[in-house]
Amino acid sequence: MQAQANWENQLIALAGHFPHTSAHPFFSYWAGDAQLQAAYKKAAKITSEHSKSFYLASGLLPEEKRSAARALYAFCRTVDDIVDEVELKKDRDFELDYWRNIVQNAASTSTDDLVASAWADTLTRYHIPHHYALQLIDGVARDLSQTRYQTFDDLATYCYGVASTVGLMSMYIVGFKSHDAVPYAIKLGVALQMTNILRDVGEDYRNGRIYLPREELVFYGIQESDIAAGRVTDRWRQFMKFQIERTRQLYKESWEGVKMLEREGQLAIGAASTFYCGILEDIEKHDYNVFNRRASLSALGKISRIPSLWLRVRSL
Question: In 2, 100, 125, 306, which residue has its Cα 20 to 30 A from 245's Cα atom?
Fold first, then answer.
C-alpha cells in the first residue's frame, strides 16, 4: 500500500494563512491579578492530572509560556470531556456553544470559570487565531456524529481537527519564525493523534468507535469482529507495522519544523514528539496488543530521553 496518502494540501488549506506576529502584551499574568493566577494554577492542575507527557514537555518552557501551554491543554481537555461525558444533546450543544463564545469574545471575557479565564487570556496574549480554537471544538464534536472512517485521507482530516489545531495554537505560544512552520505542525499533530488512535483501539471500540481506516483494514483482511474479539494475529501484526511505520515517518518529517520555532520552545515541542513516539515502541514491545492494555512511556523512559533530545535540539 501507499505509505502516505495525498492529504497534506487539504489540511494546509484548512489551516489557512494568518499574519505572523511576535508582539505580546507587556504585562504578565502574575502581575497583581489573583484571579488570573488561580486560573492558570487550575489549568496546570488539569494538565498534571490528565497528561503526564504534556505536563513534562510544557515544563521545559519558560514560566509564562508554560502556563499558557497548560491553559491550552485545559481548554482542549474540557471541550473533549463535554463530548465524552455530557449525556443530553441539548446540554452538550449548550456547553460547546459556551466555549465557542469564549473563543470569539476572548478579549472581553469576564467569568468565574477559571479554565475559561486562563484560556481567554492566553488566546489574547499570544494572538492565537480564533479559527484554530473553533476548528478544534468542531473536530472534537465530530465524535458525536461519526464513528467510522473509510480512508486515511478522511481520518487525517479528523486528526487535523482534534490535534493539528493544538499544534498550530502551541506554535503561537512557543513562538515561530515564519509561516513555513505550519505544514510541519500539521504533520506532528496527525502523528500524535495517530499514536493515540493506535494505542486506544480496544478502548475506542468499547466506546463504539473505530478510527482505523476501513479500506486499510480490508487490505490486511481484518474485520470488525477481529477487533471486537481482540485478536492479535499475523494479519493484525502486519497491519499495525504499517500503521506504526507511517506514523513514525510523520514524526520524522515533522522534525524539520522544530528549527522554525523560537529557540526557547524547541526542546518542549521536541519532547512532546519524542515522548509520544516512544508509545509506538511500547506497542511493538507488547506484540501489538492494544485491546486490553494501554501502551505508555514511563516517567523514567521520558526523562532518559531528554539528554539526547537536548543535544539534538542544540544541533539545529
Answer: 306
What is residue 19's predicted lDDT score, i.e. its pLDDT? Answer: 75
Contact criterion met (CB below 8 Å) for 166 and 139: no
Give 271's contacts (C-beta < 8 A, 6+ positions apart): 56, 57, 60, 302, 305, 306, 309
- For residue 218, which amino acid is it? V
Residues of the chain falling short of pLDDT 50: 1-4, 26
Spatial distance between the Cα atoms of 261 and 178, rounded to a whole number of angstroms:
8
Residue 23 has a pLDDT of 57
Supply the pLDDT for residue 32: 66
**What is the C-alpha end-to-end distance of the chain, expressed in Å?**
33
Residue type, 255: W
